[in-house]
Amino acid sequence: MTSPTTPVPPPRAHAPEPPQLVKFHAPEIVFGVGSLGEAGFAAGRLGARRPFVVTDPGIIEAGWVDELLGHLRESGLRPVVWSSVTPNPKDREIRAAYSCYREAAADVIIAIGGGSCIDAAKGVAILSGNDGDILDYAGVDQVTNPIPPLLMIPSTSGTGADVSQFCIVTDTERSVKITIMGRALVPDISITDPRLLVTMPEWLNAATGLDALTHGVESFVSLAHNPLADLHALRAVGLVCGNLRTTIHDPREEQARAKMAQASLNAGLAFTNAILGATHAMSHQVGGLLDAPHGVVNGVLLPHVIRYNARATPERFVDLAESAGLDVSGMPGEEAAELLADLVRTLADDVGVPKNLRALGVSEADIPRLALTTLDDACLTTNPRAADGHDVETLFRAAL
After folding, report:
1. CA–CA dist 18, 400 (Å, integer)
2. Cβ distance 69 to 92 under 8 Å?
3. Nearest Cα to Cα of residue 398 among 360, 359, 356, 370
4. What is the pLDDT of residues 32-76, one digit of tens each?
5. Which end of the chain is more exposed for a tag (fewer CB within 10 A), N or C?
6. How far apart are CA 353 and CA 351, in angstroms?
7. pLDDT score for 2
8. Based on the number of CB atoms within 10 Å of its own CB, is 105 exposed (0-12), middle (13-18) or buried (19 or more)?
9. Is the pLDDT of residue 13 over 50?
10. Residues 281-304, buried b or exposed e (16+ Cβ, 10 A)?
11. pTM
């Protein structure tokens, strides 16, 4: 009992918020110039004896596959190569790759290339550990059985697939992209060697850079954002805005290349933990319909989605704008978002991205179909502002 002379503390008006519970998924990461030399050792630690290397003809022509195979063989491994991957990997390609994987009695799966190669490798892993067809696994956490170890080596500066829990596959019968998502798809090891970025064609450099920027923006405002992912998202935005132009105008400039490699990594760590939003949900549909470059479509759509989402979380766009290098101190969030949208469009112009979807082949007649399939995309569920079919159609028309 309190005595009359003992002061009674005043009641607390507001109890402190309990700390947010955060799970942060990430592979083991090896980063730096020359890190491709670690591939044999890394694969061996994953238990490889006959690793299955998924790549494409461009990476072979650039010489990176030969270098990788040399490192694997130096470690006593007997690699098998499958290289029939095309941009926006198709369901039929993944089926063919899995058939080759099974016939070769391969084990650890290694991807070297862009997001398409990495997604195809994840598709092979899914089929290796699970029954059925790759399209059966659309959605979240549908991959329930263990899959083979994954070692990913990106050759572009934007997709983030080497650290993410996403696998994007084109359903060729319906001409749509499906999203397969789950913690099982986070690779075991990611090796990022900035040297590999130098051989990207200019259009791919621009596309993947804008993809990384979109990852940073969308993950920061996502309904699933968290403090750990936020740090990576903001860092990615700053690195892309500060270095993408340099890699276009001076492709051999090593410092900018390394920073874009880091931007891709930061952005991947952000979006695999915070997920994405309407830009990606819409972009997947355009890519599925037209087989268009994913990052280019993102570059067209992102300014419109920024303006749309700013009404829901205006204050978060202030931080994004500041990270992009804009002076928005004391500015209302929606104004900062407008400046950020303008900056994204200017950056897209500077790196040669078309101004609208029509230039990519989208027509007015395509919009109802694109909007309908967008509503089924898992990325839309974490967009900060709700969007129905009418809203999505309006966004597509604004970008047309």
Report:
1. 45
2. no
3. 356
4. 999 999 999 999 999 999 999 999 999 999 999 999 999 999 999
5. N
6. 6
7. 41
8. exposed
9. no
10. bbbbbbbbbbbbbbbbbbbbbbbb
11. 0.92
The amino acid occupying position 167 is C
Residue 172 predicted with pLDDT over 50: yes
What is the C-alpha separation between 378 and 376, in angstroms, rounded? 6
Quote the percentage of the chain above a pLDDT of 70.
95
Is residue 111 within 8 A of residue 54, CB to CB? The reply is: yes
CA distances to 85, 137, 144, 214 from 301, rounded to whole Å, are 26, 27, 34, 10
Own/partner long-range contacts of 366-369 (Cβ < 8 Å, ≥24 apart): 366/289, 367/393, 367/396, 367/397, 367/400, 368/393, 369/289
